[in-house]
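Hi R.,

As promised on Friday, here is the backbone we talked about, encoded as structure tokens. Could you run it through your design pipeline when you get a chance and send me back a sequence?
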């Protein structure tokens, strides 16, 4: 895959921000150029720079504890900053913009560990903000999750505040479901007096990618495109029940999770437990069962929150046709749609959120929702780094 750009309209240079997201799927860098001059943020252009297989493996190799991980994380922190700045410099060149026309970059970075529970909760995003600022000549706002966590919150998810700003509608419930590596939901009640909520549901594409790659080692792209392989398998109900019985799914919110938990080792442990007394299952049946796990855990969550809602799907999972069909089947009383059906570009939505978070930081406005993250108060998130 090569870098991809989409352009939508002309830019107002006094209020331009770039949002940068590198998600838990480690598929690549999403950039969004956003203009905040109007009432609603306007996506001007977006860009995607895929990671090489080598970088993807360096990232995923840090999801669980391993040998020499401080050095590996330190080197990758700098290496990713260079990938980020290369992507931004290419993007600016394509857009005929210079660094001084951008107010700031909102850099999520790459999460390599997220442990929101316990006395010493922490979350770690790499892709050095200071290096990025120096290499692009643009001020960077990053480390958005730290303050929410310092205030006792999960530091995640951060997208519900933005979802609320653009998707909430009086009189009818909306669930925005982002299916990235992990899937998360923002529930926006139609009764505007009620508080929204949001949390990580569980695995989105993460285990689908892991299992697919294990069985398609030579496939550079490493994705079950459109869910074709999963569609050739059948769901194993017994295994599905076992996977769904994991305690994470039963935890009350606020809650968040990451790749250190929903990892191939998690699946291996479940398969070992299942196969202790059973016959082997075909690999494609396991892929079909993992699609059902993502779909059913999302559907169960939506049903608990609302009996009728607009369910807006975004993130890479929206492109998995098998998964989307399964979601529609599991949510017969809801209107399941894509964010593009609401006029919002699916691929860059998360990156837009990080541009918005940088903007909120500059305006000193709050950007966390304590009812979502569990933080003791609302606050403006982020730390600023100058070139
Ligand atoms: N055409 C496709 N068919 C099937 N799956 C796809 C397709 N395109 C993308 N995906 C899935 O989407 C994933 C990438 O989604 P996305 O970029 O939203 O996740 P992410 O980077 O983990 O972001 P985050 O977790 O922060 O939301 C890929 O790893 C893949 O599993
Ligand atoms: Mg991604």
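Update: got your reply. Pasting your designed sequence below so it's all in one thread:
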């Amino acid at each position: 895959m090569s870098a991809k750009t989409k352009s939508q309209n002309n830019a107002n240079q006094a209020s331009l921000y770039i949002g940068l997201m590198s998600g838990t799927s480690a598929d690549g860098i999403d950039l969004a150029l956003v203009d905040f001059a109007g009432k609603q943020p306007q996506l001007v252009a977006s860009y995607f720079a895929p990671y090489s297989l080598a970088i993807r493996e360096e990232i995923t190799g840090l999801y669980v504890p391993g040998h020499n991980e401080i050095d590996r994380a330190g080197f990758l922190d700098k290496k990713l900053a260079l990938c980020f700045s290369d992507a931004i410099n290419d993007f600016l060149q394509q857009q005929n913009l210079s660094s001084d026309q951008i107010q700031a970059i909102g850099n999520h970075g790459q999460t390599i560990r997220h442990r929101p529970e316990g006395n010493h909760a922490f979350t770690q995003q790499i892709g050095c903000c200071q290096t990025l600022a120096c290499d692009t000549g643009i001020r960077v706002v990053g480390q958005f999750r730290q303050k929410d966590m310092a205030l006792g919150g999960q530091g995640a998810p951060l997208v519900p505040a933005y979802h609320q700003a653009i998707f909430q509608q009086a009189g009818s419930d909306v669930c925005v479901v982002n299916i990235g590596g992990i899937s998360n939901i923002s529930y926006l009640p139609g009764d505007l007096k009620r508080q929204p909520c949001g949390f990580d549901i569980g695995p989105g594409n993460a285990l689908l990618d892991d299992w697919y790659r294990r069985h398609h080692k030579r496939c550079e792209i490493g994705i079950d495109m459109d869910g074709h392989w999963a569609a050739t398998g059948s769901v194993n109900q017994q295994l599905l029940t076992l996977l769904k019985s994991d305690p994470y799914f039963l935890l009350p919110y606020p809650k968040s999770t990451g790749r250190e938990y929903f990892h191939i080792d998690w699946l291996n442990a479940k398969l070992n437990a299942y196969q202790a007394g059973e016959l082997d299952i075909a690999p494609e049946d396991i892929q079909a069962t993992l699609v059902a796990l993502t779909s059913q855990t999302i559907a169960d969550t939506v049903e608990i929150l609302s009996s009728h809602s607009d369910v807006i799907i975004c993130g890479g999972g929206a492109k998995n046709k098998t998964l989307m069909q399964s979601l529609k089947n599991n949510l017969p009383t809801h209107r399941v749609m894509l964010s593009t059906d609401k006029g919002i570009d699916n691929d860059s939505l998360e990156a837009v959120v990080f541009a918005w978070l940088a903007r909120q930081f500059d305006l000193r406005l709050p950007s966390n929702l304590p009812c979502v993250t569990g933080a003791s108060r609302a606050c403006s998130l982020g730390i600023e780094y100058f070139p």
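One thing I noticed while checking it: Residues 23, 25, 27, 30, 316 surround magnesium ion (ligand 2) (CB under 6 Å).

Thanks again,
M.
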